């Protein structure tokens, strides 16, 4: 079974297109806007999960396009955290949703965030 498709930004950062430039996907949707406000229909516990996940996520990982997936994840995770008689399948669903957004330890290791260029020691000394 094939693994999940990697985002173009990830492939670009790891240099996959240098080896195979014909694999470049030029029409993948891009979004620089932050996650939207949570839906008004969310319960208090779901809003607490929304705030927690937005606060813990690496900047640039979640965008406006991910808001609906984030809302579903919040509903599932709130049920796991504060629900009664939580089933194992419901816990697995919550973990799977978190995994798809790079929010588990193993998946977070695969998230590639562009680093700001480091300043040389000379530049830091020159400004002081």
Structure, briefly:
The chain contains seven helices and no strands. It has 128 residues and is mainly alpha-helical.
What does this protein structure show overall?
Helix 3 crosses helix 4 (67-82) and helix 4 (67-82) runs antiparallel to helix 5. The protein folds into two domains: 1-29, no CATH class; 31-112, no CATH class. The longest helix is centred in the middle third of the chain and has 16 residues, at 67-82. It has helices at residues 8-14, 16-19, 44-56, 67-82, 88-100, 105-108, 121-127. The chain has seven helices and no strands. The mean pLDDT is 83.
Topology at a glance:
Blueprint: H1 8-14, H2 16-19, H3 44-56, H4 67-82, H5 88-100, H6 105-108, H7 121-127
Helix pairs in contact: 3-4, 4-5
Q: Overall 3D geometry? A: globular
How many DSSP E strands? 0
Number of helical runs? Answer: 7
What is the percentage of strand-forming residues? Answer: under 5%
Q: Strand-and-helix sequence, N→C?
A: HHHHHHH
Helix content: 40-55%
What number of structural domains do the residues give?
2
Largest β sheet strand count, sense and barrel closure = none
Radius of gyration: 19 Å
Helix/strand-derived category reads mainly alpha
In terms of per-residue confidence, which ranges show pLDDT below 50 for 5 or more consecutive residues?
Answer: none
Question: Mean pLDDT score, rounded?
Answer: 83
Calculate the terminal CA-CA distance, rounded to whole Å: 56 Å
């Amino acid at each position: 079974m094939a693994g999940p498709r990697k985002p173009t930004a990830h492939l670009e950062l790891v240099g996959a297109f240098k080896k195979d430039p014909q694999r470049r996907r030029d029409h993948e949707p891009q979004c620089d806007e932050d996650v939207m406000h949570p839906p008004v229909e969310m319960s208090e516990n779901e809003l607490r999960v929304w705030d927690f996940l937005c606060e813990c996520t690496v900047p640039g990982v979640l965008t406006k396009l991910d808001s609906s997936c984030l809302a579903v994840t919040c509903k599932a995770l709130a049920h796991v955290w504060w629900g009664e008689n939580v089933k194992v399948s419901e816990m697995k669903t919550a973990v799977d949703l978190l995994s798809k957004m790079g929010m588990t330890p193993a998946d977070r290791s695969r998230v590639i965030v562009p680093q700001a260029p480091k300043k040389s020691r000379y530049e830091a000394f020159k400004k002081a």
